[in-house]
Amino acid sequence: xxxxxxxxxxKRLLNFGLYSIIFLGTVTAFGQxxxxxxxxxxxxxxxxxxxxxxxxxxxxxxTGLPLAGVHVQAYNNAGYAAMTGEDGTYTxxxxxxxxxxxxxxxxxxxxxxxxxxxxxxxxxSLYSNLFSDDYRERTSAIRQKTVVGFDLSGEISIxxxxxxxxxxxxxxxxxxxxxxxxxxxxxxxxxxxxANAQPLIVIDGVLLDMQYNRSMLHDGYYNNLLANxxxxxIEKVTVLKNGTAIYGANGANGVILIDTKRNRSxxxxxDVTVSGGFELMxxxxxxxxxxxxxxxxxxxxxxxxxxxxxxxxxxEDPDYYYYKQYHNNTDWTDETYQNxxxxxxxxxxxxxxxxxxxxxxVGYTDGNSTLKKNDFSRFNLRLNSDIHLFRNLITxxxxxxxxxxxxxxxxxxxxxxxxxxxxxxxFLSLIKSPFLNPYAYDTQGNLSSFYADADDYLDEVIGTNVxxxxxxxxxxxxxxxxxxxxxxxxxxxxxxxxxxxxxxxxASEHFSYTLVNTYENYYLPMxxxxxxxxxxIGEVTNVAQSMxxxxxxxxxxxxxxxxxxxxxxxxQIFSGFRFMNNTYSLYSxxxxxxxxxxxxxxxxxxxxxxxxxxxxxxRTLTYYTSADYNFKETYYLSGGVSMEASSAFGKDVTEGxxxxxxxxxxxxxVQGAWVVSSEPWFNSSHGINYLKLxxxxxISGNDDIDYTASRSYFSTSKMQxxxxxxxxxxxxNTTLQWETTKRLTAGVEMNLxxxxxxxxxxxxxxxxxxxxxxxxxxxVSGLSSNWSNEGSLENKGFDASFNAKLLNLKNWKWDxxxxxxxxxxxxTSLSNNNASFTTDIYGATILSxxxxxxxxxxxxxxxxxxxxxxxxxxxxxxxxxxxxxREYFGAGDMKFIDTKQDNEINEEDRxxxxxxxxxxxxxxxxxISFKRVTLNVVFNYSLGNDVFNYERxxxxxxxxxxxxxxxxxxxxxxxxxxxxxxxxxxxxxxxxSRFSDxxxxxxxxxxxxxVTLSYTLPLHFMYIKGFSIWGxxxxxLTFTNYLGSDPECSLGNSTLCQGIDRGLLAQGRSFTFGVxxxx
Amino acid sequence: MKSKSIILAGSLLISLGVITSCEDMLDTTSxxxxxxxxxxxxxxxxxxYSVIGIINKMQVIxxxxxLLGELRGDLVELTANASVDLQELAxxxxxxxxxxxxxxxxxxxxxNCNYFLATADTSLTKRNEPVFMKExxxxxxxxxxxxxxxxxxxxxxxxxxxxxxxxxxANKDYPMYNxxxxxxxxxxxxxxxVNTDFPSYGAINNLDSKKFFIPVRVLLGDLCLWAERxxxxxxxxxxYLVLDNYEVTTGTSQVTWSNQVTTFDxxxxxxxxxxxxxxxxxxxxxxxxxxxxxxxxxxxxxxxxTSTSNNNYYYQTTPSKKLIELSAAQSNCIVYTNGxxxxxxxxxxxxxxxxxxxxxxxxxxxxxxxxxxxxxNSTYSSERQEIGKYVTDHVVLYRRSQIYLRFAEALNRxxxxxxxxxxxxxxxxxxxxxxxxxxxxxxxxxxxxSFSQYSFSASNTLGIHSRGCGNAAANLNYVLPTLATLAxxxxxxxxxxxxxxxxxxxxxxxxxxxxxRMSLHRNDNTYLAGKVAxxxxxxxxxxxxxxxxxxxxxxxxxxx
Lengths: 1079, 560
Description:
The structure holds two protein chains of two kinds.
Chain A: H1 2-37, E1 51-60, E2 71-74, E3 77-83, E4 89-95, E5 100-104, E6 111-114, E7 124-126, E8 144-148, H2 159-165, E9 171-174, E10 183-186, E11 200-203, E12 206-208, E13 234-240, E14 255-260, E15 269-279, H3 290-302, H4 333-336, E16 340-352, E17 356-367, E18 376-390, E19 393-407, H5 425-431, E20 439-441, E21 447-451, H6 471-477, E22 485-502, E23 505-524, E24 532-534, E25 538-540, E26 543-566, E27 569-592, E28 607-631, E29 635-646, E30 657-659, E31 662-675, E32 688-702, E33 713-719, E34 723-730, E35 739-752, E36 757-769, E37 772-776, E38 785-789, E39 792-808, E40 812-829, H7 831-834, E41 837-841, E42 844-848, E43 856-859, E44 862-865, H8 869-875, E45 878-880, E46 886-888, E47 894-896, E48 911-914, E49 920-930, E50 933-943, E51 946-949, H9 950-955, E52 1000-1002, E53 1005-1017, E54 1026-1040, E55 1060-1061, E56 1070-1078
Parallel strand pairs in A: 1-7, 11-14, 51-55
Antiparallel strand pairs in A: 1-4, 2-3, 2-5, 5-6, 8-13, 9-10, 11-12, 13-14, 15-16, 15-56, 16-17, 17-18, 18-19, 19-22, 20-21, 22-23, 23-26, 24-25, 26-27, 27-28, 28-29, 29-31, 30-31, 31-32, 32-35, 33-34, 35-36, 36-39, 37-38, 39-40, 40-49, 41-42, 42-43, 43-48, 44-47, 45-46, 49-50, 50-53, 51-52, 53-54, ...
Helix pairs in contact in A: 5-6
Chain B: H1 2-19, H2 22-25, E1 33-35, H3 44-70, E2 76-78, H4 84-90, H5 103-119, E3 125-126, E4 129-130, H6 133-154, E5 156-158, H7 167-170, E6 176-178, H8 179-190, E7 203-204, E8 207-208, H9 216-226, H10 230-242, E9 255-257, E10 267-269, H11 273-276, E11 283-287, H12 301-305, E12 317-319, H13 321-328, E13 333-338, E14 341-346, H14 362-366, E15 367-371, E16 383-387, E17 395-399, H15 400-413, H16 417-425, H17 430-436, H18 439-445, H19 486-505, H20 511-522, H21 525-533, H22 543-550
Antiparallel strand pairs in B: 2-12, 3-4, 5-6, 7-8, 9-10, 11-17, 13-14, 15-16
Helix pairs in contact in B: 3-5, 3-6, 5-6, 6-8, 8-9, 9-10, 9-15, 10-15, 15-16, 15-19, 16-19, 19-20, 20-21, 21-22
């Protein structure tokens, strides 16, 4: 079976490669013919300015020795250049408007050096490129941050690299420890309430719909499209701090640009990478053992009101028939978790000539999950090529294909205990009674090799509805391609011809087509799983589901660009028109009772079949213009504006403009920057080598609007299971529009003390208005609400990073740095006349109210446990049951704070009990290199964020026949006992385990995220040009007071469900070893 | 030169978006929903989907119609298991947050009706038959019925007859209509359609779809009755009952002591069978409900009135003391026949075998309790209750006997108490009419008393009272005495009708509205207040509830 799959993959690869080569061959032939006819003209600068002569010496900062062959040129102006001689000295003639020089040598970081009013001896020290670079050539006032170099990692998706390299620019929270599940990301605070708040991802210039709010069949799983892109293929990741105008109504949540590798040189280069990794089981809660649980269960039985005196599982006579069955000591997590192995192979071929160049990469990754049967595999193929078709006509032709296959099972603690059975093997293995055995005993009392059925030790007391499945059975009998599997293939084809009309003027068209096909099968087997009751459906034996989805993205971006330089004035302008047509269709089926585990497929014979579909179509038109201007590379001004119309907008949008029969949103931005250190009066001898201030103002949008919300429509509903009825389902809000975010940014970049210390800092303040929200409709409409733009929120914050070169010797280099970010988020107005509202999710109540941050926890405060009846009676607190009866809290119950002071504990006593937003977060990092050995260490941290430990609230609820954590051995059991854990009671009538501050924990942590040691072998063979080996360790240490498995936890991408730990697979320690060979 | 042309081409390309209409480029479609500009209702098949869509919305208000009518009346009491929302209804304290107080759900029906009525192309014909006319009439009755429900639940309601498809339309101020103005509007609105047939959709899921619709004349009867237009009401009811080929007799289903024995321990029971299947002749019109919530809206009435696995057998309402007393207080007699022996025997007032086997037997026929043995820790209730009227999944709107009782109420108020009394005691068919109704009343009633002797006879028409009280015609305790004035007689007969409503239609959701209508007609708030305050029987009179209900405003639910 497996072989056939890989055979298919190989076949796909061959086909794809073949077609690519044919295409490449054809265009190459064209290109060659064209280029031979047109010899290129030499490009000489016109000498029309008065020049001044500068000279100086370039030395190695570590050794002080002069450097020869250093390229010295006017910053951003290749017209004036020089080279250092053997003694490291240079002489260059530049016009008066040149204010700084760029000094660059292979193996060293570029340095920008201000001339100021110095006439000669502009001396420069260069640092090895083993240090992180301090300067970049910039032509724009737009503030952005770019990171590169992702080769030495075994990561499946880029997300963890964004966390380690851009920790203060993007707040990342890993979704779970599943391979490639990625991270929820937030930039510039939380910029939405109900709509998507995740940043826009732009891959090679194409805006990609990341399916942020699509749900999957398997609980706890998210389809992360970034996992379709091999990390080895990524050249750089850039975050935009401002200047997002050209992304129109998509840019409000921040923009992350991901660029894949392209060929840059003529030499053919082949990189082979192989890595293998090992991930250890994550930290799991410490659960009670068999004897502790037996005690717990027998105590809990007392609260069920049973009159039975005799229970099979409590009999202690070893000769008793059922004794063995109920007297084991099983750690069920051994059955469901494992240490996991990951392997990754990649070949990257770069090369070309002056006609065509290409970057071809092929990779295969296979990643096991520490939670069994959640394995990942990916095949990926990518061809990026640049072809000179004719003189002045260059085209990019890019094609990529990736195919992800997974096994999946449900993961995490369910939010619905009433109308289902527990299906997640990981969670089952925590709560399953340890006195049971995964395997069945035969009638002779011998352990068989067959898995035990769902447990039955409570059948005689409560019935089969509390029976728990054998997690091993779900793993074993749920295993098959047509049972629990997931597949995701992504194909992208992009053609980008650029015509250089004149030296300063070009036109280009970027056409891209992306197809993402997803399928998923879900199957809950019958064997080993109890029959369970679903509300309104009744008793069922098992569940089968299947889903197929298709995302089509048609993208066209037509652009003209012009640039020129007039002395000290440099101007770049580009304008364009973008058209996007995104469709997403989904068809999913669900049914019950397949009859047996051998026919897991959907069929007409299943009971209570339901179907679900999506057919979303969104088209957008965007006109944009962006201009950058600078004077003397000292004063920068950038401006951009885009005008966007979308099929999701209403027809009568009030904030935009009406043109061509549709409403357009306008998104302008303007940025200014001032390189103070380039001023003639600036004296760099004070230790400031570089100082740049910048400021920007952007208006951007968030167009995550329900595709049909602006229009009135009818929808169908079935009657009597046989005939469709059509009725009004929405009254369209014709003024429905994007959420608007206005953001003011300011920043400073400084290089100090001979470039020894680098400091960067940004502050921002954002105002988001027109929040997409459900607004109540007048009741005569017959509908409760429709989407509307009401409410606003604000974000303010900063991020800063420091980097110091602590040691710079010939063989030793050591630098160290830190980054820190903070945001403050506040809702400033809400719809329905600022009415606060609550959202219930996974046992938590989230409050949205004016004056509070987004996502705060709203629950009961507690003040310990009543030790005695007298204490409880003295307080006299009670709750009112659903039928109006007063129920008084007694000894062993929680003491809830009666905020209203009326002795009744009810919803009105709730208060804000936690805030999932961190005070600060960021990274600490250091690099040490000795000769060819480099050690890189990165910590990440988050301080001051609260986490609702939903998993613990179940594992310590004392209300069900679930195994509990060892903390529960300290539960209240006798009058006068002083403890902080209340008594246990079946079904928890008094609500002792309700959503309260008992479950809110400080989620602060400091984590040793990665340690990477790499060594480049000094090889100089004919066929092997380079050989590096590296090893890295992830998540080695986590310092935290958090009681759950992982303080870094996320329920989803929404701003309203942050900081909720539902016990999804935690990240474990992992160790990866890799080899990179350059051929 | 070359570059110029390319620039030209480029700028053309860029402005392409403007030249071709952006509107078209942004025009999207969906296979999941139908945009209102596409739902033109101009094809024959459109009408079916729209009518079914309206019924889907009626499903949402179906349960509520019954609960508001029954729990606020005097025939049931709540058990300790009743939800707070239900308790608020029974105690007349329901606020705007009550689960059963949502006027929006009624307007969902109305808005869909309004859309159909405004959009359907009634001029469209197929084989010379108007395509939409039948549905048009059906939708008009749905709308009128829903407005009547709204008016009697909320007293005064915004009156909208045009579809609302924009926020602007939703936020308009609409005129407020009360019960009278609603009734008068729809009497005029519906009258042209009295003879329009129901559409033929055939059987849907084995249910006769004709019963999903409301007979126009019956609804007109109700509207006229509420609007105090009694003659017209009587006429509509009458015409509905005698309509050629669709005659509706009362039937002979009854629960009675066997007239073969004198010991009163053997019963002949075919009363409860009328409720066991929705296909019975008894049921005239109902809202079809789904069998499970997974399939759509299903009725929760069973869970309120009876013990089901869904409510863990904890039923939430039970017959009130008042109903049990009223039922027991009825005089039940049989005409004993044994060979040549023939005598009128009166049933004893107590029964040792079953306390309910006294007086009117209908209650004992549809209400039973049992105690089940089970583990004491079971989550299930061991005390269980069955109400024989809640057997099917569906919510009945009209049934034969109930229409007869409405007819009697209209006849009585129109000034024909003897005729009304005859509905209860004898059954209306030509020989009875001539025998028991005085000539002057017969003359005044005119064709209101005209019943075909072929269609209406002793073999298919029974006095309603006889359904549970044996042979009412022979019962000397059940008579209309000669009273001083016609008005006295009318009030006397209306009291009997009121009691008969209780005996015949208890648990079915009509009670509170019957009491309200009679109180309004008598212009006497104490009538309703006294009845409801007495729901706990002779020993449990609730004076504070009485005082509360003297305020007519409390009869209606508040609107936010």
